[in-house]
Amino acid sequence: MDHEYPFYQQQEPQMTDYQAQLEQIRQQISALDAELLGLLAKRQQFTNQVAETKIKAHMQVRDPVREEQLLIKLIKQGQPLGLTPQYVTSLFHVIIEDSVLNQQMLLAQKANPDNAQPLNRVAFLGDKGSYSYLATQKYFSRRPGELMEIGCPSFDAIIHKVETGEADYAVLPIENTSSGSINEVFDVLQHTSLSIIGELTHPVEHALLVACDTDISKLKTLYAHPQVFSQCSHFLAELGNIEVKPTDSTSAAMLKVSEMQDPSIAAIGSAPGGALYGLTPIKSNLANQKENHSRFIVVARKPVNVPLQIPAKTTLVMSTVQKPGALVEALLVLRDNQINMTKLESRPINGNPWEEMFYIDVEANLQDGPMQTAIEQLHGITRSLKVLGCYPSEEVTPTRVAAADALQG
User: Fold this and answer.
1) pTM of the predicted model as reported, rounded to 2 decimal places
2) Are 104 and 35 within one domain?
3) Which stretches make up the Prephenate dehydratase domain (predicted)?
């Protein structure tokens, strides 16, 4: 056996052989990835042609029956190839969502030709790396024209930039799934003439960011925006005796930590944002809720026209007369006109103690008959009513497929 051992040793592949095999497989995967990208781009061109046809035919953007049939067909085609229904469904939900949003964008552009411009000047809270910065990048990535970013220290400053014409648009966070509504934004909306022209929901993934080699046990001070501290309150409670210092924005917190280069301090923000400041995440998923998302609105000086083919939202602000049941009476107007309310928020009226304004989001297009009837009726029973904006809804509900239908031969 002693003589046989060198023989077996010689037959065993060297590590370089494994590395060469691995590299060859990776090259094949990369080639397939490039091919997939080309096919996805080609598919997107076809969906743009679909949008053009729907514009001419005045057809709705979404066709739930067609989407469900498509998913069922794809799931069945994927099964013999070893692709699970969950994998196929998840993949095509992303593709369908992208297709819907692209079609909505093209329809909106056709309806608002004057809005097309070579440069989009956009004001947002904080600087590069803030969550508002990331949301701005996401929203305007689908819009034509170059993006000019204008970071601001406060919501008042953001609104001022657009009102004075220094910026064309503003991106404002309006609510979060963990910490709720952002009251400061609702308050500035009371006193502005700007219109809401868009919305988006952006995932908020909080991470503990440091500038140098350290660990959690060495930390003494944390920097973050107050909303972030609220969203990560459970994590902060676990840390125990640690000083929390609020900043005007997430980007300001990251900049502070980057400049100090101190192993005892950290910021809470996104890992992609932290990378812009040379920060490294040492713990992720800090939010109280695993599914942590923020909803942002986009405002401009002029309202937009939303084609009836596009799912739309309308935001109202109103004050009711001072009598029992006044709010209920106003809400019944929405119900009687078959209008679904998605949000109701109350805020105090400055200078009028114990009186409140009500912000309402509804799933309706301002040009639609039932919505116009509701507006007319609300004017008759409220003290004041203002439409803050009608805009395309970018919340694309995933297509549902019953398991029995998907697995049926």
Assistant:
1) 0.82
2) yes
3) 121-301
Query: Which pLDDT belongs to residue 323?
Result: 84
Position 253 in a domain: yes
Is 63 annotated for ligand binding?
Answer: yes
- Residue 283, annotated ligand binder? no
CB 278 within 8 A of CB 256: no
Residues 240 and 183 in one domain: no
End-to-end Cα separation, the chain, in angstroms: 57
* Of 146, 159, 152, 158, residue with least CA distance to 120: 146
Q: Would you say residue 262 lies in a domain? A: yes
Query: 120: closest CA among 171, 172, 167?
Result: 167
For residue 3, being part of any structural domain is answered with no
What is the torsional sign of CA 153, 158, 164, 165?
Answer: positive
CATH number at residue 49: 1.20.59.10
In this structure, the chain runs to a length of: 409
- Which residues, at least 6 apart from 175, have a Cβ–Cβ distance to it below 8 Å? 181, 182, 294, 295, 343
Domain span at residue 67 reads: 19-111
317 shares a domain with 244: no
Query: Is residue 103 part of an annotated ligand binding site?
Result: yes
- Say if residue 396's pLDDT is above 70: yes
166 is in an annotated binding site: no
How many Å apart are CA 317 and CA 67, to the nearest integer? 36
Residues 123 and 187 in one domain: yes
The total number of structural domains in the chain stands at: 4
At 318, which CATH number? 3.30.70.260
Q: How far apart are CA 229 and CA 307, in angstroms?
A: 40
d(CA 313, CA 298): 13
Residue 304 lies in a domain: no
Last residue of a domain, one of 111, 140, 171: 111
Residue 187, Cβ density class (10 Å: 0-12 exposed, 13-18 middle, ≥19 buried): middle
* Beta strand pairing call for 265-269 and 207-210: antiparallel
Q: Give the pLDDT mean for 199-208.
A: 92
Q: What is the pLDDT of residues 76-96, one digit of tens each?
A: 999 999 999 999 999 999 898
Question: Is 67 annotated as ligand-binding?
Answer: yes
Residue 26 assigned ligand-binding role = yes
Tally the C-alpha atoms within 13 A of residue 398's C-alpha that lie toward its C-beta: 12
- Mean pLDDT, range 326-352, rounded to an integer: 90
Supply the pLDDT for residue 11: 55
